From TrEMBL:
It comes from the Bacteria. It comes from Dictyobacter alpinus. Residues 110-206 form the GHMP kinase N-terminal domain. Its EC number is 2.7.1.6. This is Galactokinase. GO terms for cellular component: cytosol. The gene is galK_1.
C-alpha cells in the first residue's frame, strides 16, 4: 500500500506519534499503523442478539492506531479525541482485567478488554506506544466502540510483529473469530451486552458491498451495493444518552422472556411439537406462531417480540428487493422499520423521529430510520444522489427549530475491513 493513500485519521495518527512519544523508550520496530471501520446498518436492528439477520456495510470512517512496539509489556496510548494519555500493563492478562479496568478511561478499557480476550485466546502480545485517532462519530450509532475494538485487535497483531495474524488464509484468527473476541471485550469493558453486528461488520467490510449476516450460524454473503445514483446519508442527532446501555440490556432480557413464554405456551398446547421444542431465541418463532400466541403475552413482551420477528423478515425482504434492483421498494421498508423501533421496541427518541419525519417530506429520499442501539445517535437515509442537497437543506432548516439542536450530515460509502501499514524503517 502507498502511504499517500492512507485514510485521514491514519495519516493524522502517524504524524502525531513523534509529538506525543519521545525517545525515552527503545522501540523494536518501525512506525506502523492499524485501523478498522465503523458501520452503517441498512436494516436488521436489534435482531443480532436474537439470532437473526442483519444487513450492514462497513464504511469509510475508521478508528486508527499509529505507534511502535516496546521492549516490555506496557501499552501507552494517547487519544487525540479525548486529549488524554492512558497506560496499562499486559502482564497477567486475562486474570488481571477486572482489577485494571477501574482506573482507566472508558475508551482505553476497550483497548485493554481486547488484549484480555486475545490473552484468553493464548496469542502472544507485546507492549506498544500509540496515538489513537478516528473519524467514526463517538457514541453516534455507527459503532465507534466496535471500530476501536477491531482496530485494537489489528494493532496488537501488528505490534506483536505478526507473532499472530488476523485474516482469511492460514491466519491465527479469522475475521469472525476476531469479531467474536471483540464482542466479548465490549461486554466486559462497557457492560453493554451487544450482539455481533458491529464487530462483524467492521471485520468483514468490503468496498461496494453490503453484508448479509446470519447472526446465529455466522454464515454471510456479500451483496453488490454500488449504485452511484443512490447515496447512504447518515444524519447525527447530536443526542447521546448515558443510560442507553441499561435500556439495551433490558430489551435483550425482554426478548428472552418473550421467547421463553411463547415456547411454554406452544409446548402446553403441543408437547411433542418439534418446532416448539426447537425454540431457543426469537429467531426460532415464525410470524405464524407469533400470531397464534401473541395475545397471551403481556402487552410489553408482545410489542418487543412483534418488532423483532417482523424486523427479521424485513431484512430478507430488503435483500430480495435489492437483488431485484427494486431500491425504491427496499427504501419503503426502512420507514416501516423505524415505526417499529419507535412504537413497539421503544428505542427511538424525539430527535430521531424528527429527522425521519423531515426526511419523509423530501422527494428523492427512498427510506430512513434510526440506526444502532437507539435513544440518540443517527438516522440512516437511502437517498437519490441528486436529492442529497435538498435533504441537507431541509434538515438545516427544520431540525434546529423543532429540537433546539444542530444535526450533522454525512455521506458514507461501503468500505474495506481492518488493515495495517508498516513503514520500512
Ligand atoms: C448496538 C449493538 F452493539 C449491536 O449489537 C446491535 O444490537 C445494535 O445496537 C442494534 O441493532 O449497536
Amino acid at each position: 500500500m502507498d502511504s499517500t493513500k492512507l485514510l485521514p485519521p491514519v495519516k493524522e495518527a502517524i504524524e502525531k506519534f513523534p509529538q506525543y512519544f519521545h525517545e525515552d523508550v527503545t522501540y523494536s520496530n518501525p512506525l506502523g499503523a492499524a485501523w478498522a471501520p465503523g458501520r452503517v446498518n441498512l436494516i436488521g436492528e436489534h435482531t443480532d442478539y436474537n439470532g437473526g439477520y442483519v444487513l450492514p456495510l462497513a464504511v469509510d470512517r475508521v478508528s486508527a492506531f499509529a505507534g511502535r512496539t516496546r521492549n516490555d509489556q506496557i501499552v501507552r496510548l494517547w487519544s487525540t479525541h479525548f486529549n488524554a494519555y492512558a497506560q496499562f500493563s499486559l502482564a497477567g492478562l486475562p486474570e488481571t482485567f477486572d482489577e485494571q479496568r477501574e482506573p482507566l478511561p472508558g475508551w482505553a478499557r476497550y483497548v485493554l478488554g481486547v488484549a484480555a480476550e486475545l490473552a484468553r485466546a493464548k496469542v502472544p502480545l507485546k507492549g506498544f506506544d500509540a496515538v489513537v485517532t478516528g473519524d467514526v462519530p463517538l457514541g453516534g450509532g455507527m459503532s465507534s466502540s466496535a471500530a476501536l475494538e477491531v482496530a485494537s485487535a489489528q494493532a496488537y497483531a501488528l505490534f506483536s510483529n505478526h507473532a499472530f495474524t488476523i485474516g482469511e488464509d492460514n491466519a491465527t484468527l479469522t475475521p469472525l473469530e476476531t469479531a467474536a473476541l471483540c464482542q466479548e471485550a465490549e461486554h466486559k469493558a462497557s457492560g453493554l451486552m451487544s450482539g455481533i453486528l458491529d464487530q462483524a461488520a467492521s471485520c468483514l467490510g468490503q468496498p461496494r458491498k453490503a453484508i448479509l449476516l446470519d447472526c446465529r450460524s455466522l454464515e454471510y454473503r456479500y451483496l453488490p451495493f454500488e449504485d452511484p445514483t443512490i447515496s447512504v446519508v447518515v444524519i447525527d442527532t447530536s443526542v447521546r444518552r448515558e443510560l442507553a446501555s441499561s435500556a439495551y440490556n433490558e430489551r435483550r432480557k425482554q426478548c428472552e422472556e418473550a421467547t421463553q413464554k411463547i415456547r411454554e405456551l406452544f409446548l402446553q398446547d403441543e408437547p411433542d411439537n418439534s418446532e416448539a421444542k426447537a425454540i431457543k431465541e426469537l429467531r426460532d418463532i415464525t410470524p405464524e406462531t407469533f400470531e397464534r400466541y401473541k395475545d397471551r403475552l403481556p402487552e410489553l413482551l408482545q410489542k418487543r417480540a412483534g418488532y423483532v420477528i417482523a424486523e427479521n423478515e424485513r431484512v430478507l425482504q430488503v435483500v430480495k428487493l435489492l437483488e431485484a434492483g427494486e431500491i425504491e421498494e427496499a427504501g419503503k421498508i426502512l420507514w416501516i422499520g423505524h415505526a417499529g423501533l419507535r412504537d413497539e421496541y421503544e428505542v427511538s427518541c424525539k430527535e430521531l423521529d424528527v429527522l425521519v419525519d423531515i426526511a419523509k417530506d423530501v422527494p428523492g429520499v427512498l427510506g430512513a430510520r434510526m440506526m444502532g442501539g437507539g435513544f440518540g445517535g443517527c438516522t440512516i437515509n437511502l437517498v437519490r444522489s441528486d436529492a442529497v442537497d435538498a435533504l441537507s437543506q431541509a434538515v438545516k432548516q427544520y431540525y434546529p427549530e423543532r429540537t433546539g439542536r444542530q444535526a450533522s450530515i454525512d455521506i458514507c460509502r461501503a468500505a474495506a475491513g481492518p488493515n495495517h501499514f508498516l513503514f520500512d524503517k
